Here is the input.
Amino acid sequence: MLIVGEVHTGLLRGRGPMSANDAALLVDLMAGEPVLRLERPRPYVRSPERPVGVDCPLGAVASARQIRGIGTVLQRAAITGGHIVQGTAWATLTPAAGSARQPWSHYLARPGVIEAVGRVRPAELADAFAAPARDPAALDLGDVAGRASDAVQSAVPADGRPRERLRLPRTRLRFVVEQAETAGPLHYTVPDDRLRVLRVALPADAEPRLLVAFAEDLALHDWLLTSVIGIVERAEIGVLPFGESLRRLRPAVDHLLHLWLPGRRGGDLARGLWTALERQEALSDQWRLLRDRIRDQVALAAVEALAGEPAR
Here is the structure.
């Protein structure tokens, strides 16, 4: 009926990138389950999915009715490039067969499925999940995703060497995928500095895990773009002395610019969604403009150094 979820993305604590082995230990949320590890095209580790039981309202729909949801949310964490940590929570919402609550064994046998109890209208429920403001009493997938990310951050060894001059905010991507006979338009909005909302309609045979992989990839690249925009703004190019601007730009060069590689998670489905997103939002074009502006500053510094001219 609906696939809903949220991804939290932020900078991993510590001075430098984690090795693949250390990163795998950080995301090991379930003892005895294997951690996914990929070295190409860039280092990536992801925890196994852990079911989290829920029994709460799903949020008031347009008619102010509350729909109760019972089942499990799937939670996982990942680290990309040794630098970026993500926590994800997602579930498929389906109508319950009846109004009676089943034993927990019934829900645990269907991991990642939440049964909606009540008179469910999918479009209304999708509106409720896609709304920027959520009922505090309703299912909070962001809280479940945030706990996965926080667990990884808290496991980073305290080596007494904090990352210098790189403080970047965490962002949240909320996604709502509706079932339809044919694919519908993709809607991507940015309600505030931290929250992004993705809403799309896809055929019922779309693989949920591929959709989640695409959402994580989008969240990663949105965070990269948001972070580099902030770094460039703080550098105040042309306003501050040249050397100071360059110093403020350096963290982007050291830690972020090499990580842009969209559309590599989720197979053909993700590539199609990325193509649609790029037509609307031109994220890669904006990234190239920022990257080139930073590189121009670095190149100018190199030219001045070779010419023996002082930085302005």
Notes: The beta strands are 2-11, 36-38, 44-46, 50-60, 66-80, 84-95, 113-117, 171-180, 187-189, 195-203. The chain has a mean pLDDT of 88.
